[in-house]
Amino acid sequence: MNEPDGGRIPLTGLPLAQLAERLAGILGSGRYRAAQVFTWIHMRRVRSFDGMTDVSLRTRRALSDAAFLTVLDPSRTRRAADGTVKHTFGLADGSLVESVLIPDPPRLTACLSTQAGCRMGCAFCATGRMGLVRNLGADEIVAQLYSLAATAGGGRITNVVLMGMGEPMDNFGAVSDALSILSDDRGICIGSRKITVSTVGLPGGIERLAALPGQYGLAVSLHSAVEETRRRLVPAARALPLPALRAALARYAEDKGRRVTLEICLIAGINDSIREADALASFARGLPCKINLLAYNPVPGIDLRRPDEEAVERFRDHLYPRCPAVTLRRSRGADIAAACGQLAAAPPAD
Fold this sequence. Notes:
Layout: E1 9-10, H1 16-27, H2 31-42, H3 57-66, E2 67-68, E3 74-79, E4 85-90, E5 96-104, E6 107-111, E7 115-117, H4 126-130, E8 132-135, H5 138-150, E9 159-162, H6 172-183, E10 195-199, H7 205-211, E11 217-221, H8 227-233, H9 242-256, E12 260-266, H10 274-284, E13 289-295, H11 309-319, E14 326-328
Parallel strand pairs: 1-2, 6-9, 9-10, 10-11, 11-12, 12-13, 13-14
Antiparallel strand pairs: 3-4, 4-5, 5-6, 7-8
Helix pairs in contact: 1-2, 5-6, 7-9, 10-11
């Protein structure tokens, strides 16, 4: 948990059961007080304890002495031509993270970060070039969503994807707490089926997600079903070879009764061949899944090329009908470096 403020407790990152336990130590209060405070934080989304108007002044002062609410205001906001909005947030220790709000009526999707930077080192990803700065606390993950919701212009966020900066399974404790908070019907109440966790596939990560009670969506950044190509693009993939990854995905789909998503970022001359498409079709055969194809979004300093439309369509058409659920995802926010693989949390220009 993120505790940068003189040891005070960041209440924004505590699921209800943990909140009750902490408040018992601070106030000697029972579950009723915890439910009351939880609702103020996560449903009414107050920015300070002073806003909890039906809580006694004495209690509010005790809370202020022992705890704090995490509130993130963007240090920079950029809007793309397609309506996508990217926020850059400065955290308490000076770290920077980025979050993206993606309008696609009737859906409004929030893309949240789980780490400042990332240590997975994916070859096509701007975040990976940063390395890992630090994990985010559950409070910082949740606070990103509340900031996006406050700037949504009256629209209600319908979907959440943990596909921003960082590898969620590399920060699973905080991610697990954030998922519990976001899907709690006493708070912002984003249904678990409307929340998707994206991972490159770390040993044990998919199993830990499966053990959570919600039916969270699972997307795996596969990028190739040829082991050699996959390891070239996703160095962390060496820890979980394709057969073990597929087995974990099959168990998740069976346990949750949901299809998993295979994410493929197509890169010219590397993973856009018919041979690659055949391998992907073989990997997907018999696996309850859908395949999302996305053409590479250029990143300064990375010597990779976006495939032309003909190559992308050829790859897609070869998959279908071998794979019954194949979509070609349109990049959103590429003109403001908000698309897949482009988040790097550059400081605002003076």
